[in-house]
Design brief:
heterodimer; A: alpha/beta; Rossmann fold; six-stranded mixed sheet; four-stranded antiparallel sheet; 10 helices; globular; B: alpha/beta; 42% helix
């Protein structure tokens, strides 16, 4: 699926003293099968932007296009199935007596037969490394386990685009490695991923393209190398290290990911 | 959870460990939000389960999410909120609030509305609220994990300045934040599995792996290059070490 947001504006609490223009004309395209990163400071509009991707929020003005078709003309339930949104702290919405029941809730409402529902529950829990939790109560899990279960619930809908809003916030750093594995698997299955994160290293490792948001507008867009070498205040530690080499970094290109950076530093050090 | 440890006055102690390891439970036991099933917690001699108000005057907890704590329309009123409940005289309150706001580097923000602040600024306002009350012990429960890079740097600099005069217990997933800690406790599965200086933790790859701890990028790059972790803490230092080795190699050839 190709998902386009065109010239989106969003004003919260319009006409009151609390009026805030959260998006000021933002255009974003999610290409089929790509992993797109969205970064930017708190309050830059990242979460507001992605909540327009399945029309959870209605824009004040602007258009959402799904493969060129105006998303407002699509059946809302189809749109929400095709564009899955894992909000920040999605574990807040867990409710069922067991993990398996919780993940099954949405796919069951699609009218799938019970065998298909069970297969989806199993596959999506396994993709999140949470297969062993199926019979447990979601309320007796750790924070990291709850997050996995909640994301599995979105994945079980079989989305073509999966939006993850701060999926690792507040979790242990090993969760980042698990997330990178999940994203690689989704990409291999042809599912597009939108990753909203303030963890620049996570974005540097996982994404094909990056949008940088600032005060409700797009400040920069490009490959991770294009963006992080241009917007120095957002550079992850890998890029900061290469930039700190000064003149000596000219010959090593613009590595961003860990492995590329390690190889480049080895070249410079001469071993 | 089954844990025993002592925190000495003036110490700076880090707490790390995987999700579900018991870090948040420990913090809640310390300020009396929950009670132990068995065992004893004492904060400056007081039991948080039976005398939470005495404990909370002496021990402040800075939580993860900067959005959750605001109660007042302006920064200075928010900072004053805790004091109002302690029955402190108005003049005394004014000077304490002004001093606390200055200590976190937010002088001039007194009449700002909290919702107009950045994440880092919000956490510093929350911190000023504690400083006004003047607790001897500060408990930081992942205070930077919701912040962007700039906000993290602001809050860490602010904490670095404050820790010299206080006892600090700092829960975090970011090992690089604990480089200056006196010691680091590792909690996993509800047990205390290690109590070590930060340098020891960073160089013990088994201890790190068993507890789902991941070295910061700079340290992982340094290990990959065979450089000493003690000398290389920042991207600048890493680049310097790489260039030094290149120069030595060129000299030898």
């Amino acid at each position: 699926m190709r998902l386009e947001l065109k010239d989106m504006r969003h004003v919260y609490a319009r006409g009151t003293t609390f009026e805030v223009e959260a998006l000021r004309g933002v255009s974003v395209t999610v290409e089929p099968g790509e992993v797109l990163g969205i970064v930017g400071g708190m309050g830059s509009g990242k979460s507001t932007l992605v909540q327009h991707m399945n029309l959870l929020l209605t824009p004040t003005s602007g258009e959402v296009l799904v493969d060129g078709v105006d998303a407002t003309t699509l059946k809302r339930s189809d749109l929400r199935r095709r564009v899955g949104l894992a909000l920040q702290f999605p574990e807040a919405a867990l409710f069922a007596p067991t993990v398996g029941e919780d993940v099954a809730f949405a796919p069951r409402r699609l009218g799938l037969d019970e065998g298909e529902v069970r297969a989806r529950v199993r596959d999506s829990l396994e993709a999140l490394g949470a297969g062993h939790l199926s019979g447990r109560s979601p309320f007796a899990l750790s924070g990291g386990e709850k997050r996995r279960v909640a994301v599995a619930g979105v994945l079980a809908m079989g989305p073509e685009v999966l939006v993850l809003d701060e999926p690792t916030a507040g979790l242990d750093p090993a969760m980042r490695e698990d997330l990178l594995g999940l994203i690689r698997g989704l990409k291999a299955a042809g599912i597009s991923v939108v990753l909203v994160s303030h963890d620049l290293e996570e974005v540097a490792e996982a994404t094909d393209r990056v949008y940088v948001m600032e005060r409700g507008a797009v400040r920069a867009v490009g490959t991770p190398a294009e963006v992080f070498y241009r917007v120095a205040d957002l550079a992850p530690a890998t890029v900061q290290t290469v930039l700190a080499l000064g003149e000596a970094h000219r010959g090593v290109g613009r590595p961003v990911r860990f492995r590329e950076t390690l190889a480049a530093l080895r070249t410079v050090a001469g071993n | 959870m089954n844990v025993s440890f002592d925190l000495r006055a003036g110490e700076y102690v880090g707490i790390v460990g995987p999700n579900g390891g018991g870090k948040s439970t420990l913090v809640r036991l310390l300020n009396g939000l929950i009670r132990p099933d068995s065992g004893r917690v004492r904060v400056a001699g007081y039991d948080p389960a039976t005398e939470p108000y005495e404990v909370r005057k002496r021990l402040g907890v800075l939580f993860q999410n900067p959005e959750n704590g605001f109660v007042a329309p302006f920064v200075e009123d928010d900072v004053a909120f805790g004091l109002e409940n302690l029955g402190i005289a108005r003049e005394e309150m004014r000077s304490r609030v002004a001093e606390a706001i200055r200590a976190v580097g937010l002088a001039g923000y007194e009449r700002r509305e909290p919702h107009t602040l950045s994440g880092g600024e919000k956490q510093r306002v929350a911190l000023a609220g504690f400083l006004a009350i003047g607790p001897e012990i500060l408990v930081l429960d992942e205070p930077t994990s919701m912040l962007d890079t700039a906000g993290r740097r602001e809050v860490l600099e602010c904490l670095e300045a404050l820790r010299t005069t206080r006892t600090v217990l700092h829960v975090t997933h970011h090992l690089e934040e604990l480089a200056n800690a006196d010691r680091v406790l590792v909690l996993n599965g509800g047990s205390l599995v290690a109590d070590v200086p930060p340098e020891r933790l960073l160089s013990d790859s088994d201890l790190l792996r068993e507890n789902r701890l991941v070295l910061p990028t700079v340290q992982r790059l340094a290990l990959g290059l065979g450089l000493s972790l003690a000398r290389v803490r920042t991207p600048g230092e890493l680049a310097g070490a790489v260039l030094e080795r290149a120069a030595r190699g060129a000299g030898a050839r």
